[in-house]
Amino acid sequence: MSEDEELPDLDGGAARSINSTAVSGGGGDQNYVSPSPDQVLENVLENVLYFLTSRHDRNAASLVCKSWFRAEALTRSELFIGNCYSVSPGRVTNRFKQIKAIAIKGKPRFSDFSLLPPDWGAHFANWLRAMAASYRALEKVYLKRMCVTDEDLAITAHSFPFLKELVFVCCEGFGTDGLAIIARECRHIRVLELVDTDVTDDEVDWISCFPDNVTCLESLIFDCVETPINFEALERLVARSPSLKKLRLNSYISIRQLYRLMIRAPQLTHLGTGSFNTSEIVAQSEQEPDYLSAFAACKSLICLSGFKEIIPEYLSAIYPVCGILTSLNLSYANISAEQLKPVIRQCHKLQTFWALDSIGDEGLQAVSVACKDLRELRVFPVEALEDVEGPVSEVGLLTISEGCRKLQSILYFCQRMTNAAVIAMSKNCPDLVVFRLCIMGRHRPDHVTGEPMDEGFGAIVENCKKLTRLAVSGLLTDRVFKYIGQYGKLLRTLSVAFAGDSDLGLKYLLEGCPKLQKLEIRDCPFGDSALFAGLHHYYDMRFMWLSSCKVTRQGCEEVARQLPGLVVEVIASGEEENETNEYVDTMYLYRSLDRPRPDAPRFVHIL
Amino acid sequence: MRSIMGDYEETELRLGLPGAGGGGNEGETSRNSSGKRGFLETVDLNLNLNNSSDGNQVEDMKQKNPIPASTDSAKPPNKAQVVGWPPVRSFRKNVLSVQKNTTATDDNKSGGSSMAFVKVCVDGAPYLRKVDLKMYQSYQQLYDALSKMFSSFTIGNCGSQGLKDFMNESKLIDLLNGSDCVPTYEDKDGDWMLVGDVPWEMFVDSCKRIRIMKGSEAIGLAPRTVERCKNRG
């Protein structure tokens, strides 16, 4: 169970147990009845467990003995379900009675890249039904890659009158209709966040649905909602939300409108700037608002994003906050190195930086000079293609590694790379926890030596002792997996694509990485015998995904037969009856405490 | 063009296949001159679909045709497109297409040259989908993709065969007469048209959203019906 870095910080507020042992005092000493050892134990446990917030600690505590199990179950208030099908909602609501916060993850991550046919599952409705009956005091809901309908949102609003936080990440299935219901009915909502979530345009003005009085909104994030917004209503909403700290606007908000919002909310700490563009032609004589002063007024602004349709000339407006920013997301801003430099050179406190590769190696050079405290870097491609010249390369990676020694997490898309640069990063940045390198051309070798990229990734697993997440790419042989199996002892999440020569590759991984939780593999020549090499470990994993590999249906069936606690799904990729194919399109396996899910669509075969 | 609302000179009523017989921009080459076949070739009924990548399985995130790097002549010809590679989420690709719009005045969100996302709704289906029209080179490919997308929710004879029939002239009238489904689309002017009338390229440029409706409703789409379409849109 790995901590996903995107998982929000769920507060520990465990519901204090009201179960206190009454010592029946009164009367003389001879009538004193001391509480039974069991009760004392439970009392202690319940009060001690109150302080246990980490779910890993709680899981451990619950295993000690039955009374600890019971006590823990009564006092746990936050629930994390890493795979919505690993356990049935009924079992959960039976065991845990006092849940106030729940996080549920659904589809496997490769569904983000169209590798999972639609309607595969992960319907929130199943969980909602159970929760509505049992968790009336629910305050926080966090969903990732779940299918949520408008009706689900309506039920949510009605069933949880104390709902405070609703966060959707990579979800889909609902529209502005559903948002309107939430806005209207959830009287205590403080946090409403939509991140990379598909919201259909039902042509409903949901912003106007918030109640007219002062709200307790602290966070309103809707930058991914691609529908027009009633700006006047939004402006009024912001004006009557004095607690608002996080506001991320969508690209329908122009920079002029952004200005009007900012001057009403100088207390913001997190701002998503919308389009950062003007929607109308500004006449020469017309006065533009003083954007600089609006930013200058935001004394607490530490996280800036948006810039969805940026006119680069406006970027200088953010100068006043550069010095205090810890997070800057320019990953929708197609700007050059020259346009970046005057901004980034002021961002000495920056810890998180996301950008497009349009800034080039030169832009990364500027980052490495200015941002000595950088912890997380993500570089996305403007053109996500295979056969183009890319503006970033091993040069950028190397310079970052030399300047940003505290780097912990990197996601880097590029067209060419060398082992030398990757090896250098492995030595310069020993704190790396997440290393995700995507060389966009499949099977592309080190472009200087022509060698496979084995040595580079090998150095990463060997030198970065804290590494828990890795994504590999480029030309890779079985050797890289040997390295990963040998050195990747803390590795929990691994993504592999178009790599390896034979079954040995996967065998090395499954035999060598004891902490491996999430393994997603596509288009590699791994077959059944490699599949069997992991039988000893699958129960300890959250899931394994294999698509376009060389596993057969028989192989999958054998795994299912040997491991009854595992659900093995064979997913057809949408072709009509494809019995002739020797290999399965996709195999997705995960452990489950209950019977396989009843809601599997017809293209999913559960073995 | 079977225009519902208007009557344009070059859009006379015709039962021919899209592009056949010189409807509009005949012979216009595709925008990406990267080895893609010309328009007419792709609309041939005996479609040779082997340049469509593995399974038009899902919608928005397939790759664009790679533009060959002009520098390296030793490079192999364009690789086949691969679904989901590079692994970039659709939200990034969606918005990046707008970056290429230099005119800030245009509200058109899909104006970029690289992508054309439109919503697709099917009468009776509980959800909408989005497709990127630039991923396809022909109506046939679009129909195949739509059939697969909505295959888990069947509406009568709206399987790929049903939609293929739509391209077949002789079955067209049957379709319109029956209760089978008919793909319609709203164009830039707000008119509701039958899919398949104009050359593919013109369709991609002008289509704002797609609605697959029952044939019986599509017949002689009267203004009143069009209003209903728009409201349910």
Automatic annotation (TrEMBL), chain A:
<dbReference type="InterPro" id="IPR041101">
    <property type="entry name" value="Transp_inhibit"/>
</dbReference>
<dbReference type="GO" id="GO:0031146">
    <property type="term" value="P:SCF-dependent proteasomal ubiquitin-dependent protein catabolic process"/>
</dbReference>
<dbReference type="GO" id="GO:0009734">
    <property type="term" value="P:auxin-activated signaling pathway"/>
</dbReference>
<keyword id="KW-0833">Ubl conjugation pathway</keyword>
<keyword id="KW-0927">Auxin signaling pathway</keyword>
<feature type="domain" description="Transport inhibitor response 1">
    <location>
        <begin position="98"/>
        <end position="143"/>
    </location>
</feature>
<feature type="region of interest" description="Disordered">
    <location>
        <begin position="1"/>
        <end position="33"/>
    </location>
</feature>
<dbReference type="Pfam" id="PF18791">
    <property type="entry name" value="Transp_inhibit"/>
</dbReference>
<protein>
    <submittedName>
        <fullName>Transport inhibitor response 1</fullName>
    </submittedName>
</protein>
<dbReference type="InterPro" id="IPR032675">
    <property type="entry name" value="LRR_dom_sf"/>
</dbReference>
<dbReference type="GO" id="GO:0019005">
    <property type="term" value="C:SCF ubiquitin ligase complex"/>
</dbReference>
<feature type="domain" description="COI1 F-box">
    <location>
        <begin position="38"/>
        <end position="77"/>
    </location>
</feature>
<dbReference type="GO" id="GO:0005634">
    <property type="term" value="C:nucleus"/>
</dbReference>
<dbReference type="InterPro" id="IPR041567">
    <property type="entry name" value="COI1_F-box"/>
</dbReference>
<keyword id="KW-0539">Nucleus</keyword>
<dbReference type="InterPro" id="IPR006553">
    <property type="entry name" value="Leu-rich_rpt_Cys-con_subtyp"/>
</dbReference>
<comment type="pathway">
    <text>Protein modification; protein ubiquitination.</text>
</comment>
<dbReference type="Pfam" id="PF18511">
    <property type="entry name" value="F-box_5"/>
</dbReference>
<comment type="subunit">
    <text>Part of a SCF (SKP1-cullin-F-box) protein ligase complex. May interact with auxin and auxin-responsive proteins.</text>
</comment>
Automatic annotation (TrEMBL), chain B:
<dbReference type="GO" id="GO:0006355">
    <property type="term" value="P:regulation of DNA-templated transcription"/>
</dbReference>
<protein>
    <recommendedName>
        <fullName>Auxin-responsive protein</fullName>
    </recommendedName>
</protein>
<dbReference type="InterPro" id="IPR053793">
    <property type="entry name" value="PB1-like"/>
</dbReference>
<keyword id="KW-0927">Auxin signaling pathway</keyword>
<comment type="similarity">
    <text>Belongs to the Aux/IAA family.</text>
</comment>
<comment type="subunit">
    <text>Homodimers and heterodimers.</text>
</comment>
<comment type="function">
    <text>Aux/IAA proteins are short-lived transcriptional factors that function as repressors of early auxin response genes at low auxin concentrations.</text>
</comment>
<dbReference type="InterPro" id="IPR003311">
    <property type="entry name" value="AUX_IAA"/>
</dbReference>
<keyword id="KW-0539">Nucleus</keyword>
<dbReference type="Pfam" id="PF02309">
    <property type="entry name" value="AUX_IAA"/>
</dbReference>
<dbReference type="GO" id="GO:0009734">
    <property type="term" value="P:auxin-activated signaling pathway"/>
</dbReference>
<feature type="region of interest" description="Disordered">
    <location>
        <begin position="1"/>
        <end position="84"/>
    </location>
</feature>
<keyword id="KW-0804">Transcription</keyword>
<keyword id="KW-0678">Repressor</keyword>
<keyword id="KW-0805">Transcription regulation</keyword>
<feature type="domain" description="PB1">
    <location>
        <begin position="115"/>
        <end position="215"/>
    </location>
</feature>
<dbReference type="GO" id="GO:0005634">
    <property type="term" value="C:nucleus"/>
</dbReference>
<dbReference type="InterPro" id="IPR033389">
    <property type="entry name" value="AUX/IAA_dom"/>
</dbReference>
